[in-house]
Design a protein that fits this description.
The structure holds two protein chains of two kinds. Chain A is mainly alpha-helical. In chain A, 72% of the residues lie in helices and 0% in strands. In chain A, helix 6 packs across helix 8, helix 11 packs antiparallel against helix 12 and helix 15 runs antiparallel to helix 16. Helix content of chain B is 30%, strand content 29%. The radius of gyration of chain B is 18 Å and the shape is flat. The longest helix of chain B is centred in the N-terminal third of the chain and has 20 residues. The chains are: A mainly alpha, B alpha+beta.
Chain lengths: 414, 132
């Protein structure tokens, strides 16, 4: 659990970055100054107590650091001239289009997920500037030295600066076109946290909860966007199964074999409520559909009671909005559950030649699963083994190998 | 994603390194130091280490009572690890590009290098959904 102080600091971070950036017109410098203010607060507040107005305190400290920076900078004159220019420019834009605090946070989301950045840099910068995490926390979460993470963040800011991006909310149509990139970054943060919850590193900051918190913020800032809600729902409906997905030897437990009594009820109902709000609203995107599929699984009291026909129908819709062979692969499993494995197996065979899937282990894993359903245990075991050879995930490899071993044992013993 | 990039060499390779000229050695050492600094600066370096010469390398096995049994006899063709870099990058291609930079480390005789660099992915946890 994060402490109250941490929670306060994280909530205030994007707001203060917004204030300082608009005052000096220098996002990169403002972001550093706020990071220093956060570290000062995290060390002082536990002793001195939380100030009456934490926001004013942080803003003042950050502004002071910003002034120190400008003064101590050897290229001070250039900076000041730049700041003055920016100040004038910002006044002008401010008059034309006043920016609220909410806009500042949303602006930061778009800035951190700027198309010129690599995904790894976007992730790091989003966690720091919007999430209010320290460089040390982010570095530890990704098992990377702090110096490397600091460089990654500072280079990301350089890239943004040289791209000429302004600290201003993109126009509505640009927001629509760039939102998928923001959602993608949040999705990757969630995945990273989910991947690490395999028990190897218990003290690691919980990136999945952080991703859910960020997705909640984004959802509140873009209330009319069905996909922002869809992503939040997808995260909640997936996270709900977290307590049941890893077995005693660190092997992944597939959905069908999980102990459903361990699932987190509150997350399931929140996810379903979110979906019920947005699905009728019209345009349905891939995150909403994936969330709807997750919801159908989560609503089934047992694996046998899963409504596969509905899942198959949802995969058909998903295929229409998203051209991703991974979806075809998952659809094949649903198809097999409704119509039996034969046709699905043929479909998967054709996928093996799709260059986008390459040598992805899931093709073998799904094939193995379908072969097992059709009673061809020996062939299934072989494919489980080739999937194990290709996967990059420890829990998944453990699962695939034990699965293959169980099938082989079964055939030799009977 | 994390990758380990391993520089491998045979015993003969290590021996020839001992015979390099001062200039060759300096070029190589400077190159390696600058490369590590550059990778750190690019925000991708997780760690890097160089290994001691393999002349004292041992293979150790647990004996009957857990007592170590050591063996230091290797075939001439065996490849030894000379050093490694662990990097955190977005794709296989990014890792290959860095491996090629390492491979180009200056060789002896003033020549441009082309050392073999073995690239392997480091295992991670289990992701739940693909987000492509």
């Amino acid at each position: 659990m994060i402490s109250t102080i941490d929670a306060t600091l994280r909530e205030l971070t994007p707001l203060i970055i917004g204030t300082v950036t608009r005052r000096y017109g220098d996002f990169s410098g403002a972001e550093d100054a706020v990071q220093e203010a956060l570290i000062a607060a995290a060390t002082q507040w536990p002793h001195s107590g939380v100030p009456d107005n934490p926001r004013v305190w942080l803003t003042q400290v950050a502004l002071r650091r910003m002034v120190d920076r400008i003064r101590s900078d050897s290229a001070r004159r250039a900076r000041e001239a730049h700041a003055a220019d920016a100040w004038v420019r910002d006044r002008t834009t401010d008059d034309a289009e006043p920016q609220s605090e909410e806009d500042d946070t949303l602006t930061l989301f778009f800035m951190c997920c700027h198309p010129a950045l690599t995904t790894a840099s976007s992730i790091a910068l989003t966690l720091r500037a919007v999430g209010g995490l320290t460089t040390g926390e982010i570095a530890a979460a990704f098992f990377v030295p702090e110096a490397t993470m600091a460089q990654r963040i500072s280079r990301a800011k350089q890239t943004i600066r040289s791209s000429g991006a302004q600290f201003a909310l993109p126009k509505a149509d640009e927001r629509t076109s760039r939102l998928p990139a923001v959602l993608h970054v949040l999705c990757l943060i969630f995945n990273e946290g989910y991947a690490s919850s395999a028990g190897q590193s218990l003290q690691r900051l919980d990136l999945s909860s952080e991703a859910i918190r960020l997705a909640r913020m984004l959802r509140a800032l873009q209330p009319d966007d069905g996909e922002a809600a869809g992503l939040l729902a997808l995260m909640l409906l997936t996270d709900a199964r977290r307590p049941a997905r890893i077995g005693s030897i660190g092997e992944l437990i597939p959905l069908g074999e999980q102990d459903r009594s361990l699932w987190i009820e509150a997350e399931i109902s929140e996810g379903i409520a979110l979906l019920s709000n947005v699905l009728p609203a019209g345009k349905v995107g891939p995150y909403q559909l994936q969330a709807a599929i997750a919801a159908v699984h989560d609503e089934a009291r047992s694996a046998e009671k899963t409504d596969w026909a509905q899942i198959l129908a949802l995969y058909d819709l998903l295929q229409e909005v998203s051209d991703n062979p991974m979806i075809t692969l998952s659809r094949a499993v649903a198809d097999a559950m409704v119509h039996g494995p034969e046709r699905a197996l043929q479909r998967v065979e054709t996928l093996t030649s799709d260059p986008r899937l390459g040598k992805h282990h899931r093709v073998d894993a799904v094939r193995a699963h379908l072969l097992e359903l059709s009673g061809r245990t020996q062939a299934a075991a072989e494919h489980f083994r080739s999937a194990a050879k290709k996967t990059n995930s420890v829990p998944e490899r453990n699962y695939l190998l034990t699965k293959a071993a169980r099938l082989s044992d079964g055939t030799t013993c009977s | 994603m994390k990758y380990i990039l391993m520089m491998l060499g045979t015993k003969a390779g290590f021996e020839s390194y001992l015979q390099w000229s001062k200039e060759d050695l300096e070029r190589n050492i400077t190159f390696m130091r600058d490369l590590a600094a550059a990778l750190r600066n690019e925000g991708v370096l997780v760690s890097t280490e160089g290994l001691a010469f393999p002349n004292e390398a041992k293979v150790v096995r647990a004996g009957p009572d857990g007592v170590p049994i050591t063996d230091g006899v290797f075939p001439e063709s065996k490849e030894f690890l000379a050093g490694y870099w662990i990097v955190d990058v977005d794709s296989d291609e990014d890792a290959y590009r860095i491996a090629a930079r390492i491979s180009a480390a200056p060789a002896g005789g003033g020549l441009k290098g082309s050392m073999p660099i073995e690239v392997r992915r480091i295992m991670s946890g289990a992701e739940e959904f693909s987000s492509e």
